[in-house]
Amino acid sequence: MATRKSARKPNVSADELKSYYRDMLLIRRFEEKAGQLYGMGLIGGFCHLYIGQEAVVVGLEASAEEGDKRITTYRDHGHMLACGMDPKGVMAELTGREGGYSRGKGGSMHMFSKEKHFYGGHGIVGANVPLGAGLAFADKYLENNRVTYTYFGDGAANQGQVYETFNMAALWDLPVIFVIENNQYAMGTSQKRSTSTPDIYTRGEAFGIPGEAVDGMDVLAVKEAGDKAVAHCRSGKGPYILEIKTYRYRGHSMSDPAKYRTREEVQKMREEKDAIEHVRELLLSGKHATEEDLKAIDKEIKAIVNDAAEFSKDSPEPDAAELWTDIYADVAPQNA
Length: 336
Ligand SMILES: Cc1ncc(C[n+]2csc(CCOP(=O)(O)OP(=O)(O)O)c2C)c(N)n1
Ligand SMILES: [Mg+2]
Fold this sequence. Notes:
This protein is an alpha/beta fold.
C-alpha cells in the first residue's frame, strides 16, 4: 500500500478518529459480505455496493445531531449502517427475510427507519431530491431546528427535478444539505461524457445556494465540510451544496460489464486514495492506536458482519399474508 501524506492534521480526538475507522470498516466488510451472499444466490434483484465511498457518509454522519434526517438513493447500505441501523436488519432485508427492515418486501433499495430518521432507499434516479427538500420543509414548518441530508449522484445531478428543488429550497430557505456523491460515473457513463460543467457544486449559484467541492476520500475533510454546511442550515440561511469527490471500487450494481474504465484506474484509486487506509495511517503514525488495537476493531467488525449474515440466512421468509400489509388499498386477500 502506497502511503498517502495527509494534507491536514487530525482536528478530532483519537476516539473520534477510531470511530471513523470502525464505522468505515463496518460498511466495507458488510458490503463485501453482501457481495458474497449475492454470489451464492442468497440475495436477488438489484444490489449496489458502496465500497470505496465510505468516507462520505461516515464524515457527514459525524456532523449530524440526533433528530437530523437522511434520504438517499439505491446505493444505500452504507447510509443505513452509518446512521446506526442494525446490520442484521439490513442484511436480512437484502436476503428478503422477515427480520429485514421492510420485512423482506423491500430489498436493497427500499428500507426505512423512523427511529433513525432514515427515509430510504430510492430506486428512481433524482426522485429522492425533492423528497429531501420536503422533509426539510416539514422541519422548517415545525421549527424544530433539524437538518436533512439529501444524497444523490453525479448522474442524478443532471436531472431537471434537482433544479426545481434547488429553486424552492432556496426560495423557502429550507434546512437541507444537498450531498452530491460524485463517484465520476453514472452506470457506465463517465462524468466527462455526460456533464457540461465538471464542478457540479457551482450549479447552486443560479439559485443563490452556496456550495463547495470536498475530497471524499478524506473523512476529516468531509467532516469539516459537513460541520460548515450544517451550521449554515441550522442558522436559518437555507440550503447548502456539498459535492463530494469519491470513487466506487466495484461495478455499478452486481451486473456490470466494467468496460468503461480500466482496471489500472481502479487499482490506482485503491492504492493511493483509500479512505480507510488513510485513517489507519493517521492512527498509527499519530500513535493514537497500535496494530493490536486495530486488529481488535477488525475482529469486532468481522463478528458483527458474520452475525448479520447468519441472521439473514436463518430468518424465515415472510408469510404470504405479508403481501396484504403496508399497502394503500384496503382489500381482502383473494381466494384463488
Ligand atoms: C429516472 C431513472 N432513470 C434511469 C435509471 C437507471 N439508472 C439507475 S442508476 C443510474 C445511474 C445514476 O448514477 P449516479 O447518479 O451517478 O449514481 P451512482 O450510481 O454513481 O451512485 C441510472 C441511469 C433510474 N433508476 N431512474
Ligand atoms: Mg455516480
